[in-house]
Amino acid sequence: MNHAVAREGQPGNQYLYRGLVEALSFFTSLAPQAFVHRARYLAQCVLRASSQVHAGNYAPECRHSQTPRSLVGVARLIYRRLPHYAPAMIIDVHTHAFPDQLAARAMAQLQAETDEVIAVLDGTVGDLLKSMDRAGIAASVVASIATKPTQFDSILRWSDTIRSERIIPFPSLCPKSDGAVDQVRRVAAEGFRGIKLHPYYQQFLLDDEGVFPAYAAAEECGLVILMHCGFDIAFPRERVADPARLVRVLEQFPRLHVIAAHLGAWMDWDEVEARLVGRPVYLDVSTCFDFMPREQAERILRQHPPEYLVYGSDSPWVDQLRTLEQLREFGLPPAVEAAVEGGNAARLLAASRA
Length: 354
Prior knowledge:
There is one protein chain. Mean pLDDT is 84; it is low at 1-17, 26-34, 51-67 and 81-87. This protein has 13 helices and 8 strands. A 5-stranded parallel beta sheet has the order 4-5-6-7-8, sandwiched between helices. Strands 1-2-3 form a 3-stranded parallel beta sheet. The protein folds into 2 domains: 13-81, no CATH class; 91-353, Metal-dependent hydrolases (TIM Barrel, Alpha-Beta Barrel), CATH 3.20.20. Helix 1 packs parallel to helix 3. The protein starts with 12 loop residues before the first helix and ends with a helix. By secondary structure, it is an alpha/beta fold. Helix content is 44%, strand content 9%.
């Protein structure tokens, strides 16, 4: 779409802009909610640049000091008149990043494992923040994956350097290692809200009793576990993290906060419907919509308890805004959509700090 902005001071500008707003209002009555969200977000950028709204998390490219009054006027009209579908805070519970000095090498190694997904970011926190700004995301969980027990300390130190109101690090540890229980407690003691576990990369069965002490410590400390579930794109399809194994863990540790990534189990969604849907376990929507039938995704989204659904993207492998737009295409009730995009995660993360 081409945009032409008349210069400030030309006769009839106010009518031009008011006409634009009327056109936007008409088209948004027909378009997906994602269009409305984006229009409001861009209007927020303009208003933020001109100090017309309170400070917030807006795209840095919109922060400039000289904004024509005519543009401010149309932005104000868009912001006030378009319906507001977006939640107060969008939280992505599933992203990954690496230290700047390691990102290029780590991303190249991971990309070499598959050509089914192509990274959309460079793997740095800085690039993630730019993506968050483009998508209107307030905060993202950055999940590390320790592939060796000796990596725990360096991951914990780096996690401490990146955490902020917008970046919520989930450190990682090898859950069968001798010091795993103490490491879980250290994560909690240092104020982190969760940990990331990946049965394939960390070489454990999800329901291995050797991991139970680490689960018990996480449950005791109130930590969230972001768990890779289902098969993995880079590994042979062995059932090391399937829904049946997760159910056994949930039954053994009923107070454990688990986010089952990839809508419960990547490429194993029949088992998700049979064993997980309806249970009090969080399902994120990362890296799933492009790999499963739309009808099945909609069944899971509508049949699982809405308070246990959370937005996640799996960035840098999937675009954050694209995942949001795909989620909104299902037309969930506005209150449910707002809860999935941010409300449920905010509640879960707040509980993990209590």
